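Holo prediction. Input below; ligand is iron/sulfur cluster.
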Amino acid sequence: MAYTGNILRVNLSTGKAVKEKLNENWAKDYLGGKGLAIKYLYEELKPGLDPWSEDNKLILMTGPLTGTIAPNTGKLAVAAKSPATGTILDCSIGGHFAPELKYAGYDAVIIEGKAKVPVYLYLEDDQLELRSAAGLWGKGAHETEHSIAETLGDVVTLAIGQAGENLLPFACISSELYRQAGRGGIGAVMGSKNLKAISVRGTGGLKIPDIRKVSMALNKIKREDTMDEENMWAYTDGTPMIVELSQTTGILPTRNFQEGTFEGHENVDSEAVKGVLRAKKACFACPLACGNYVEKGKSRVEGPEYETLALCSSNCGIDDLEAVIEFNRLCDDYCLDTISAGNAVAFAMELTEKGIHDFGIRFGDIDKYLQMPWLISNREGIGAELAEGVSSMADKFGGKDFAMHVKKLEIPGYEPRGSWSMGLAYGTSDRGACHLRAWPAAVEAFGDLDPFTIEGKAELVKDMQDDNSVKFSAIFCDFWAISTGRMAEILSIFLEREVTAEELTTIGERVYNLARLFNEREGFTRKDDYLPRRIYDEKLTTGKTSGKNLPFEEYEKMLSEYYALRGWDEKGIITEAKKKALNL
Amino acid sequence: MKALFFHAEKCVGCKLCHLACSSQNEQVFNPRLARLKITSCYDRNGLTVEGKTCDLCMSCVESCPVDAIVEKNGRLAFDEDLCTDCGLCVDICPHEVIVGKDRGIGVCVQCRSCVNWCPTEALTFEEVNK
Ligand code: SF4
Ligand code: SF4
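Structure of the complex:
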């Protein structure tokens, strides 16, 4: 069976939980994961809701393939209205939580209300306990996980650290220490509900017809497709491989996006990370094992991923790998999103160096840099300012043109001036600047397409957004470059009906439009789909992107073209015809 | 005689071996019903990877009072009709890889599904005492 058919709805205000039926029509239209989580939020959240209020809901959503042997299907979607952006927010977290939830008998958990005192949830099959988190509050996510494991044994846990408790707009959720639901303050939503952790143990299983035959067929797919050379970079290198690509193509964010190349890149690239690699690590059912468990000096982490290397290394002017590893570990423990944290630190560094406001921290200052995760998570000293994110910092101190965010979400590790398609991807992403809704840099800056033209980019970004939307709803991990045809083949087996590639593309488009519709309802329009002025007005000065900007008029044209392709009007509003066509 | 070997340094903790075993032998995707136990977890000391697999030590064969588990051509065979559900084998297996069920037990029958699925060759099938 693809779905358990059950959803667990927990109300933390009343302490009551009910088991309810999964809405099958929605599951058909949205599959699971990202899509289905957004559908529930769209239907259940009142427009204009304050994301900090107890009426916000936190949804943990699995997919129809979760818990099966289908490769790369171990991820979980975690969704809520974002306290950082006010948009819809869905994150994806790896590890082993999602299958465990399914084995416990649920497709999803919907968490509502707010506990009076800090609690954590312990779910074992049909048994749910709200346990006191009094002894855990104030502790990092790592200590929380260790301590819960000592009490409950082999459970899988999602936990927040101090950043989530202190309601930081870029607090994340950690699981198995180093896997994160990273962006948009998803961890702060947990914190606002006084929910320290969610632990699950599931002892049931999933049955499907002809299971042996299916497993054999999937093993062939795993060998020939998942583990194809195209995807094996995940195992041989993992994401640090991108450092060199970005450096060579001039899109490695450096010193708060002032430059696109970093003189210290060799100290923090894939070869450097391999030098301290202790083991490779995978999520559940994943043969690609992108995780790099590293140890250097006294510090250890599963990471650092490319985004951390870009935003917390080059973007902060730090070329000391040991320092970056330690910064990464601290962020994972306190539950800071490293993309936003790196941006906030870099922004403070530039404001200081430009004499706009003296935060007392400059590019490359390792000692101060290493104090930042603690100060930010606990809102101490300058951390109190950085904790609000770059958009709020700019409101208060200035530097708006180089506060690197879209819709208040800080920009990931691909400089848009050297990858114009990434600019559009950031501008039109449903949760603010994000590289996972579409990652066109792969075929453009890193591929064969000309990065300095808008030609064909609108279509490229739209198609990738739709593909990724269905991929994250199915749920497959991003790192298997799976075709919609292959997705359809696998889903057909588990859904026990014929699923076509066309149907999946439509689902992807529907999911992306529903996310847009959610944001539209919150007042987001074209005016919110723009990049910081630095991208339009300042030319880069080094490497392959020397002399390059992304001219504003070009961006405007690309955006209009994108809206037209999407069936949205000039203001970025979804037309009635489009809604009808997608059954929205 | 050949048996399973586990190489911790290669294991990435994906649990595909558990899924392969449970789907092949129990017709269900349930890692807890696998006839091997591979764990890869972060604890306070860092990453701990451990694997328990059947090495054909024959403790179960020797312990079974009704000969429900026997060795045939270097493989274990289980006869559910003979089994009295006494649970002795489950308790005695030094590797804790015999699965206790509502009726009968599950022993490793060397189907090698786990070896076939393991993406990193962390599981191999080799001669014992070579
Ligand atoms: S099942 Fe256990 S006791 Fe029996 S032979 Fe295998 S390892 Fe030995
Ligand atoms: S399949 Fe191989 S790599 Fe994966 S958990 Fe099992 S032994 Fe480890």
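The mean pLDDT of chain B is 96. That is the main takeaway for now.
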